[in-house]
Write a structure and sequence with these properties.
- The complex is a heterotrimer of chains A (about 350), B (about 290) and C (about 240).
- Chain A is mainly α and about 350 residues long.
- Chain A contains 14 helices and 4 strands.
- Chain A has one domain.
- The radius of gyration of chain A is 20 Å and the shape is globular.
- The relative contact order of chain A is 0.19.
- Chain B is about 75% helix and about 5% strand.
- Chain B has a two-stranded antiparallel ribbon.
- Chain B is globular, with a radius of gyration of 19 Å.
- Chain C folds into 2 domains: about 160 residues, P-loop containing nucleotide triphosphate hydrolases (Rossmann fold), CATH 3.40.50.300; about 60 residues, no CATH class.
- Chain C has a 6-stranded mixed sheet, sandwiched between helices.
- The chains are: A mainly alpha (about 350), B mainly alpha (about 290), C alpha/beta (about 240).
- Chains A and B meet through helix 5, helix 10 and helix 12 of A and helix 4, helix 9 and helix 11 of B.
- Chain C: InterPro entries: AAA+_ATPase, ABC_AA/LPS_Transport, ABC_transporter-like_ATP-bd, P-loop_NTPase.
- Chain C: One of its GO terms (molecular function) is ATP hydrolysis activity.
Chain lengths: ~350, ~290, ~240
């Protein structure tokens, strides 16, 4: 693939270089912090894929995030065999994808679209939070694991490949490598045959049907891919902290990806990545400094971003950079972000 | 039987009152107000604080309605008015608003307020006690629906806003100031949310997250009801009220809530336009034969 | 006329919106290779018929047959795969993409990967918009957008091409070129059914005509027969 020289791609390369050398520069605590931020990036990317690329607006990414996190916990704690943890990861991602497929099937084949997808997925998230919150009793045992109500599940085993346990730096690099792979995949996907069909669906669903594309099928497929990515995020989150609680399904985790992707630039995966990391870094720094104004500042930033930079803060910066440094004036949606021409 | 009826009235009132402000804003403006819960919370705060300051409850409730209505108008003029027609952006922005409101209230008033006691006491029928206040909430919900019906069918504002809802462009070309209509609509939606908050303030703990409990029922009611801000919530409030009352009584609250969601998903799958769409279809068929 | 020669057939097709009968009990046969026009004033139900042929609307009653096969319950995209393509009345192009990208979206689904590029070039050449291939579609004239959309419809390799007012909003010169293009496509073996209400354009082009009025079939026949049909002339002059 011919990678085009533009602001976004240069920034992407620099970010990943920075991520790779980061553990050399800072202490172990900061590395684990960034590992957490990167885990959450998958959640944003899942939304970039389905909303930014395909135009499916969903609050449901937290559903797959939470379900897979819980699945991994229940699976690994029940098996008790730590070498089976990679299987838990793989199965968890698959299950997230399958559940997303089923949900997508019901919605897209039923002609449910646009804002209604958002509303349904929002309700689903809230119901799951309520459900997990009341699972404290003894009747909520799956095998030997109690779902634990509001306290959730603790002491979930870390990932172990062979006899090697992924913690600290090794966990960080594991997450980073998978992130890089997913990132490259998404950049490639955008200009693949399916990716182009997906952009067509975003731009005009009805018209795309009349060009012979099975639109509900493609939507379900992309929604399933998004579900799998969100699941990956959920499991990494569990691996990072070794616990999970119903707040994984909460309103905040349902809406934060939407907000991050919208404010960063939803049609641009680099923007989503960068803005997500900045957001988590910023909110952690603010809350560590004890400022109770952190959420207020965040809320105001969002409002201002949507009102005045509707294409997203980071994406607009990329665009400005392109015009300044590369005299790039093409306004085509596909070209603007372009890794290459079609 | 009285028990079930009482529970139904309770659930129905809760669904209608949760949803009505959201439904008016969504139905008329296609704006999804994620700060709806926080508007309700603001109403609860105004009512509680006013009552503590010695103002009679009824007047405090009125104060909430006016206060949140004005607050809604300000939010609309500053923010929402720039987003008319941009449904998805409205989601993000109103989430930002909700963040600011929730955290702002937390900073100003701390994690919780002392709750008011539920007024009016209870009556005893057939050996069970029923809260008069909750029965009054049911009556209020019904009266509110009737008042809104009158507002939207019998007034010039109602005529213009329905025109704007069906086709904003044509309405504009006929001299309707759609922006003013939308501002007023948003303000009414906010005021209704304020009313809901004020009405429920004496029945539960008032904290910055007060609105959270209203969010899911309100969204489900609006989804199931569809676009029409009156027919929608009335019908879906009725149906969902029956569903959740039945499930609550048999299997407990959680299944009541799950039932709401299942109904919502089924309704969207079978009739994407909700009850409003169904009613419209039937009435067209009837009137044109 | 042999039975196999009928490519498209509508049998007692009707579409009611509530109580409004937009299309009522329509029977139309389009033979393979025909250049057929649906003629009629505004509100006659022409576009609604197209949408039912395409599967965008489901008929309230009646059936649609394509190539002897009942396609009434098929989805739009399956009909496209069988060989029905449409250019709609309102432009259905992707305005924020370039001409080339628009064509690529349409072409890639029906052409092997290695041949996509040459197929796009061939179609752009045919449509006389090759020079515009890197232009953003929103910057094209109305006429150029119509041609692009015809090109996208052709990319689906149709047996039957539906054109809803192919020359709407075009100047005389563009109209002539459009007529020439349609004739050329028809000669290549594509059956064409088009909608128009400009009698001069229809006369220049169509072989057979079906006239619609208020959702019902009003008359049918060759262009010459229709032209001399007094009732048809009347509805066009508004006497009906």
């Amino acid at each position: 693939m011919l990678v085009k020289l533009n602001t976004e791609n240069i920034v992407a390369v620099l970010i990943f270089l920075f991520f790779f050398v980061y553990p050399v520069l800072v202490d172990a605590y900061s590395v684990m912090n960034l590992a957490y931020f990167l885990s959450m990036v998958f959640l944003s990317l899942s939304l970039s894929l389905i909303w930014g690329y395909c135009g499916i607006f969903s609050f449901g990414q937290a559903v797959f995030f939470g379900i897979s996190g819980y699945f991994y916990a229940v699976f690994t704690l029940n098996s008790g065999i730590t070498t089976l943890t990679p299987l838990g990861l793989i199965l968890g991602v698959l299950i997230g994808g399958v559940i997303a497929w089923i949900l997508g099937y019901f919605m897209f084949y039923g002609g449910v679209n646009d804002v209604f997808v958002g509303l349904i997925t929002l309700c689903l998230t809230l119901v799951l939070e309520t459900f997990m919150g009341q699972t404290a009793g003894d009747q909520w045992m799956i095998g030997q694991v109690n779902l634990g109500g509001f306290n959730g599940i603790n002491s979930i085993p870390s990932l172990q490949i062979g006899s090697f346990i992924l913690t600290g730096n090794s966990f960080y690099y594991f997450v980073l490598l998978i992130l890089l792979a997913v990132f490259i995949f998404l950049k490639w996907f955008e200009f693949s045959k399916l990716g182009i069909a997906v952009v067509a669906i975003r731009e005009n669903r009805e018209r795309t049907k009349l060009l012979g594309y099975n639109v509900p099928f493609i939507q379900s497929l992309v929604f399933a891919m998004g579900g799998a990515l969100a699941s990956l995020s959920g499991i990494f989150y569990v691996l990072w902290g070794n616990y999970i609680t119903p707040s994984a399904f909460g309103l905040a985790s349902a809406t934060i990806p939407v907000v991050l992707v919208a404010a960063g630039g939803r049609k641009n995966v680099t923007a989503a990545l960068l803005f997500t990391v900045l957001y988590y870094w910023f909110s952690q720094t603010l809350s560590a400094s004890g400022s109770e104004y952190a959420l207020i500042i965040l809320g105001l930033v969002l409002i201002v971003a949507i009102l005045f930079v509707p294409n997203g803060l980071i994406a607009s910066l990329f665009h400005a950079g392109d015009q300044l440094f590369f005299r790039e004036h093409s306004k085509s949606l596909l070209r603007k972000k372009g890794a290459k021409t079609l | 039987m009285e028990d079930l009826l009482y529970q139904f009235m309770n659930n129905f009132a809760f669904l209608i009152l949760s949803a009505i402000g959201l439904a008016v804003i969504f139905g008329m403006m296609k704006i999804i107000n994620l700060a709806h819960g926080e508007f309700i919370m603001l109403g609860a705060y105004i009512a509680t604080l006013a009552t503590k300051a010695g103002i009679p409850l009824l007047l405090s409730i009125l104060l909430s309605v006016v206060g949140v209505g004005i607050f809604g108008l300000i939010v609309d003029r500053l923010i929402i008015s720039r987003l008319y027609g941009r449904t998805l952006d409205s989601v993000v922005v109103t989430w930002g608003v909700s963040l600011v409101m929730q955290q702002g209230i937390l900073i100003l008033f701390g994690p919780s307020l002392e709750t008011l006691s539920t007024p009016l006491g209870s009556i005893s029928i057939g050996g069970s006690d029923y809260s008069l206040y909750r029965i009054l909430l049911f009556v209020t919900a019904i009266v509110l629906l009737i008042l809104l019906y009158l507002l939207f069918t019998k007034t010039t504002f109602g005529l213009h806003s329905r025109a704007a809802m069906q086709n904003a462009e044509i309405a504009r070309s006929m001299g309707v100031n759609t922006n003013r209509i939308y501002s007023f609509t948003f303000s009414i939606g906010a005021a209704l949310a304020g009313l809901t908050g004020a009405l429920y303030a004496p029945t539960m703990a008032v904290s910055p997250t007060f609105g959270g409990g209203f969010l899911m029922p309100s969204f489900v009611t609006v989804i199931v009801g569809g676009a029409n801000p009156l027919i929608g919530p009335s019908l879906s409030g009725g149906v969902l009220g029956v569903v959740s009352t039945g499930l609550d009584a048999t299997w407990g609250t959680f299944f009541g809530r799950l039932g709401l969601l299942v109904v919502a998903i089924l309704v969207i799958r079978i009739m994407p336009l909700g009850f409003s769409g169904l009613v419209e279809k039937l009435s067209v068929r009837k009137s044109r034969g | 006329m042999s039975k196999e020669a009928v490519l498209l057939e509508l049998r007692h097709v009707g579409k009611y919106f509530g109580g409004l009968r937009a299309v009522d009990d329509i029977n139309i046969k389009v033979e393979s290779g025909d250049l057929h026009c649906l003629l009629g004033p505004n509100g006659a139900g022409k576009s609604t018929i197209f949408k039912m042929i395409m599967g965008i609307y489901k008929p309230t009653n009646g059936s649609v047959f394509f190539n002897q096969r009942n396609v009434t319950h098929l989805k739009s995209w399956d009909r496209v795969k069988l060989g029905i393509s449409i250019k709609m009345q309102t432009p259905g192009v992707f305005g924020e993409l370039t001409v080339y990208e628009n064509m690529k979206i349409a072409v890639q689904h029906f052409t092997r990967h290695a041949e996509v590029k040459s197929e796009v070039s061939r179609l752009l050449e045919l449509l006389m918009i090759r020079d515009l291939k890197d232009e953003l579609v929103d910057n094209l004239s109305h006429g150029q957008q119509q041609w692009l959309e015809i090109g996208m419809a052709l990319a689906c390799k149709p047996k039957l091409l539906l054109l809803d007012e192919p020359a709407a909003g075009m100047g005389p010169e563009e109209t002539d070129r459009t007529a020439e293009l349609i004739r050329q496509l028809n000669q290549q073996g594509i059956t064409i059914l088009f909608i128009d209400h400009d009698m001069a354009f229809v006369k220049k082009l169509a072989r057979n005509t079906t006239v619609l009025h208020l959702g019902r079939k009003f008359a049918e026949g060759t262009v010459e027969e229709i032209e001399t049909n007094q009732q048809v002339v009347d509805i066009y002059l508004g006497k009906s």
